[in-house]
Every structure is written in C-alpha cells, then in structure tokens.
Amino acid sequence: MDYLLTQHDLKIVAKIPMRFDSYYVSMLSNQYKTGSSKLLHSFIKGFQSNRREAKQGASSIVYVIKRRH
C-alpha cells in the first residue's frame, strides 16, 4: 500500500482498525445463508477472524490518506 501511494504522491497518516466489522459481517452472512443472525455463532466467527489478524487487531482497516505536499 505504501509503495502504491508513493507513486501518486500520497501517504498514510493513520490506520484505524474496524474491530467490530468481522462480527457484523458474520451476522450478515448468517442472516443471508440461514435467515437467522445466530448471534453466538456470529460472535465466535467474528472473534476468530479478529484473532487471526492479531497484529492489526481487526480483519478490516480504514486507511486515512493525504497528499505529501
């Protein structure tokens, strides 16, 4: 990501982990597949997803970017 942004004279000024995104996506997936959000199952899957991404603390990240000038 840094390399790509550098090519366009941009830089990352912040990385914001979306810690609850994996739980929400898991609930939506269950709702779509089964018609029920299955809260406990969704929580477990969301937790596992975040745990796999332990370095970042979340499975999704928002990048805040600005021009280098």
Strand order of the largest sheet: 1-2
Number of structural domains? 1
Q: Which spans of ≥5 residues are poorly predicted at pLDDT below 50?
A: none
Mind summarizing the main beta sheet?
2 strands, antiparallel
Tally the helices.
3
Order of SSEs, N→C? HEHHE
Give the total of beta strands.
2
Shape: elongated
| Helix percentage | 40-55%
Rg over alpha carbons: 16 Å
Distance between the termini: 19 Å
Note down, in words, how this protein is organized:
The protein is built from three helices and two strands. The two termini are about 20 Å apart. Helix content is about 50%, strand content about 20%. It is an alpha+beta fold and about 70 residues long. It has helices spanning about 1-5, 20-35, 40-50; strands spanning about 10-15, 60-65. Helix 2 packs across helix 3 (about 40-50). The chain has one domain (about 1-65).
